[in-house]
Amino acid sequence: MKKxxxxxxxxxxxxxxxxxxxxxxxxxxxxxxxxxxxxxxxFFVGNxxxxxxxxxxxxxxxxxxxxxxxRSHFLxxxxxxxxxLTSIYPGMKNLLHALIDKKVMLAVASNKYQSAxxxxxxxxxxxxxxxxxxxxxxxxxxxxxxxIVHSCIEAAKVTxxxxxxxxxxGVDMQTAANANVQSVGVTWGFRPVAExxxxxxxxxxxxxxxxxxLLAEEGK
Length: 220
What we know:
Blueprint: E1 4-7, E2 14-15, H1 17-30, H2 49-56, H3 64-81, E3 87-88, H4 92-101, E4 105-113, H5 114-124, E5 132-136, H6 147-156, E6 163-167, H7 170-178, E7 182-186, H8 193-198, E8 203-205, H9 208-218
Parallel strand pairs: 1-4, 1-6, 4-5, 6-7, 7-8
Antiparallel strand pairs: 2-3
Helix pairs in contact: 1-3, 2-3, 4-9
């Protein structure tokens, strides 16, 4: 029986891509660099903001100096505008409340930087009591390193066998495998189904209610 469900944030709980694209494109404009269409950004995100900036820059500028220039414009803009276009995926609130009703603990493990992770969760899910809300923090390796999942497990005082990890990317599936927990790849997120399958997703969910069904079948 699962006692803890850990959720990725971007592409899993929230559709954040429009605000991320707008913030990076704003930063590129300030630096005189060509912008990208929003459709490119699902393949830029997933490994933290540093990799996001690197992928958005031209190949000749993918170095620490230019990454920091993008960061200097991105952070203040995104902090002010990260809820302009972001939305909760349909059915997600119902899933979270249903899990709470079943006495399942909830956590968030994201590669988004910590302050933005906390802000978005508190803004969109103010009534949900998460055991922990963890994002990218200095000195802690990003996913697919399992450290963030281990921290959630420790906070909830459960075993890996009692955990389900839910995410939308190959990085998430790798993270779950590295932490020795079962994974669910959601098909409504930023990455294709094949990426989830190729990176070892234990299960696939086409809608949030599928996760409830999975837990119910496991509990039989």
